[in-house]
Structures are given as structure tokens and as C-alpha cells.
Design a protein that fits this description.
The structure holds two protein chains of two kinds. Chain A is an all-alpha fold. In chain A, 90% of the residues lie in helices and 0% in strands. The two termini of chain A are 53 Å apart. In chain B, α2 packs antiparallel against α5, α3 runs antiparallel to α5 and α5 runs antiparallel to α7. Helices cover 84% and strands 0% of the residues of chain B. The chains are: A mainly alpha, B mainly alpha. Chains A and B meet through α1, α2 and α3 of A and α5, α6 and α7 of B.
């Protein structure tokens, strides 16, 4: 039988675990009643563990199934995240423009007051703002 | 003049009060982004063979080794599901944060730029008053932009988020069942071998085996608690986000804020609980 759906895989794994539990219960009962020798008991226990390992293998199949099934979901979550980051970037760009405006006002004031050091300082700030805006546009 | 200024300021401030009310959304998303347990439990799942290896042999061991390789191969992909959800929640927290859409530092620098040059002929107190109004206006404008951005984000994200959370819960279920098999393997072996061991002959062996079983029992009980807590955390996040999407237009209502605060508190308690174990 090909196990295709996750539900099928889960059901079979649960059945295997169930069988292993029943085997263990019977085994321990037999041991307590001294109906079974140690080597035989060990062989039965080994079978029980093999069933558990088979079930574990199925749980890995099921986990991989979840991962594959979520590929599209992950993609659309990432898209939502990216579009939100773009909105945040837009606001940051506006903030940079306000900085530029502020420094332009300072420059205008410095020019009207005819203070060369202030003019130079203001120009430096404007250069920085322009680089920041350019950097934001490039990224 | 003064009266009008004050009145306008109050009018803007009250508008502002009705708009930016996303603190609870931010807190809820921030707590959800920090959901602990999943990474640790995924790592525990990956390391299953390391723990069970001393107790198994023969064909069972060969099967266990195959499983080990497959678990290790799946590990990164299993972690990624949680990482995406974490980034989603972090982004929501940032979107809803009061600093993210804040233009006031820019306006402040305009104001101080003007103030630094008295030659410009504008009185300092006037500049303060104007920049104060500009700040309120900017906040008002950006807050509606922010509200819209947050609403769109939640609306767009809800379906994939809920699906991913269900997937995560299923994965934790598989981890738990694998862990259960591991415990039954260890417990079963010791139980079986102890019943064939004569206590009077092998007193030391029996004592050590019992002490070992005791330690192992508490280890697996603790792990079992973590699986349950982590699942509870995932369910709480799913419920909280569900509440957000159902009340997109009512996010500033008191009852919604109260429930969100409760969800954030529950998630924090779960995180603290898992971390303390």
C-alpha cells in the first residue's frame, strides 16, 4: 500500500506503535509468570523495537510531508514580509528628505547671514543627506 | 492667538489619540516572535539516535541509523518554518511600533536648524509652536499610513500564517511521538533486563539500573511537558492573530486591546515556563 496522505501515514504509524505497546504488555506478563526464557524474551523485545523504529521512520515521512506542503505558504509569508519592509523603507526615505530640507534651510540662513564656516558646514550636511538618499534608492 | 494655538493642538492630539493604538499589536507580535521551545525540540528530534543508540542493537540499530540520517537531512527545513513565522511576527511588531513611522526627529532638526540662525528673523517660541504642530500633523498622517500598512499585513498574512502554525503543531506532534518511542525503548529494555536479573547476585547492577531509570524517567517527563507547552504557545499565537484579522477595523477598541494583552501575557508565560525547565 502506498502511503500518500499525511493522515494515512499518521494512522499507520499509530497502529505500529499500538502493536508495539501490546507486544510489550504481553511480553512483560509472560516474563512475570515465568512463561518465557530470557533469549526468547529478548528476541520479542527486539521485534517490538523494530516496530517502533518503523513508526519513527513514518513520522519522518510525515514531517517531510509537512515541510513540502508548507513551501507555498512560506513563500507567501515571505512576500507579505517583503512588501511590509518596502513600506517601512518608504517612511525612512521621507525622513531622509526631511533631513535634507532642514539642512537646506540652514544653508539658506547661513548664506543670508554671510557666514562662510556655517555655509561650509551646511554644505557638508547636505552632501551627507544626498548620499543617504542615493544609498536608499540604490538598495 | 494663544487660545487658538492651544485649541488646534488639542484637536490634533485627540485625533492622534484615536489613531495610534497599536501598542498591544506590537507587544503581541513581539512576544510571538520569541516563541521558545520549537528550535530546542527540533534539535532534540534531530538528536534522537544519539540518545537511543546505547539501548538498541542489530536490525533495530540499522533502522535507527537510517532514521538518524533522514532526521539530520530534514533538520534545517524544519527550523525554517519557525524562522519564517518569527520574521513575520518581528515585522508585524516593527510595523505596529511607534518609532517605525515617526517623522518627528526630522522635524526637530528642521526646527533646530531654523533656531540656530536668529538672523533668519523667526522667533524661537514661534518655531517651537510651529514644529509642534508640524509633528502632530505628520504623526496624524503617518499613523493612518501605518494603520493601513498593519491592516494589510495582517489580512495578507493570516491565511499562510495559520497554515504554517498548524504545520508547526503537527511537527511537534511527530517529535513527541518519536520521543515517546524512544522512552518506551529505553524503559522497556531496562524493565525487561531487570526482571531477569537476580537482585541478590547483582546488587550493584540492579541498583545502578534503577537509578538510571529514575533519571531517564524525569528527563522524558520534562521533555513531554515542553512539547505540550510549545503546542499551547503555537495555539495561542494562532488565536491571537485570528482575533486581529477578525477585528481589523476595531483594533483600538478596549475589549480587543484587553484580549490582545492577555494573549501576549499568555505567550510570555509559556516562554518563561519553557525557558525555566
Amino acid at each position: 500500500m502506498a502511503l500518500t496522505t499525511q493522515a494515512q501515514i499518521e494512522t499507520v504509524a499509530a497502529e505500529l506503535n499500538n502493536c508495539a505497546d501490546i507486544i510489550h504488555e504481553r511480553l512483560m506478563k509472560a516474563v512475570k509468570r515465568k512463561e518465557i526464557e530470557r533469549p526468547a524474551a529478548q528476541l520479542i523485545f527486539q521485534d517490538e523495537i523494530i516496530l517502533r523504529q518503523k513508526a519513527n521512520g513514518l513520522y519522518i515521512n510525515a514531517a517531510n510531508g509537512v515541510v513540502t506542503g508548507l513551501a507555498e505558504t512560506q513563500k507567501s509569508l515571505l512576500e507579505t514580509i517583503v512588501s511590509a519592509k518596502q513600506k517601512l523603507k518608504k517612511i525612512n526615505d521621507i525622513a531622509t528628505f526631511i533631513d535634507l530640507t532642514a539642512d537646506l534651510i540652514v544653508l539658506a540662513a547661513a548664506i543670508s547671514a554671510a557666514k562662510p564656516p556655517a555655509i561650509l558646514a551646511a554644505l557638508k550636511e547636505i552632501k551627507k543627506d544626498c548620499e543617504a538618499i542615493k544609498g536608499a534608492a540604490d538598495s | 492667538m494663544k487660545f487658538i494655538q492651544v485649541a488646534i493642538t488639542f484637536a490634533f492630539a485627540s485625533l492622534l489619540f484615536g489613531c495610534t493604538n497599536l501598542k498591544e499589536v506590537q507587544d503581541f507580535a513581539g512576544q510571538s516572535a520569541q516563541l521558545s521551545g520549537y528550535t530546542e525540540l527540533t534539535t532534540r528530534f534531530r538528536d534522537t539516535y544519539y540518545r537511543e543508540q546505547p539501548y538498541i542493537s542489530g536490525d533495530a540499530d540499522r533502522l535507527a541509523q537510517e532514521n538518524d540520517l533522514r532526521r539530520k537531512a530534514a533538520y534545517q527545513d524544519l527550523l525554517k518554518i519557525h524562522q519564517t513565522i518569527s520574521v513575520y511576527m518581528q515585522t508585524l511588531a516593527t510595523l505596529a511600533g511607534d518609532k517605525s513611522f515617526d517623522l518627528t526627529p526630522g522635524i526637530d532638526s528642521v526646527a533646530s536648524g531654523i533656531k540656530a540662525y536668529p538672523e533668519f528673523g523667526i522667533d524661537k517660541t514661534q518655531v517651537d509652536a510651529l514644529s509642534g504642530l508640524a509633528k502632530i500633523a505628520a504623526k496624524w498622517a503617518t499613523s493612518s499610513y501605518q494603520q493601513r500598512a498593519v491592516r494589510e499585513f495582517i489580512k495578507e498574512g493570516n491565511e499562510p500564517l495559520q497554515t504554517a502554525l498548524i504545520g508547526m503543531e503537527k511537527l511537534i506532534g511527530y517529535y513527541q511521538k518519536t520521543n515517546d518511542n524512544e522512552w518506551k525503548t529505553i524503559n522497556g529494555l531496562l524493565e525487561l533486563e531487570l526482571s531477569f536479573t537476580d537482585q541478590s547476585e547483582d546488587k550493584l547492577l540492579v541498583t545502578l539500573a534503577r537509578a538510571h531509570l529514575q533519571a531517564k524517567a524525569s528527563e522524558y517527563q520534562l521533555a513531554d511537558k515542553k512539547y505540550r507547552e510549545a503546542r499551547k504557545g503555537i495555539q495561542t499565537i494562532a488565536q491571537g492573530h485570528g482575533l486581529l484579522v477578525e477585528n481589523l477595523d476595531k483594533l483600538s477598541r478596549q475589549e480587543i486591546k484587553d484580549s490582545l494583552r492577555q494573549f501576549a501575557k499568555d505567550i510570555k508565560a509559556i516562554n518563561d515556563h519553557i525557558n525555566s525547565m
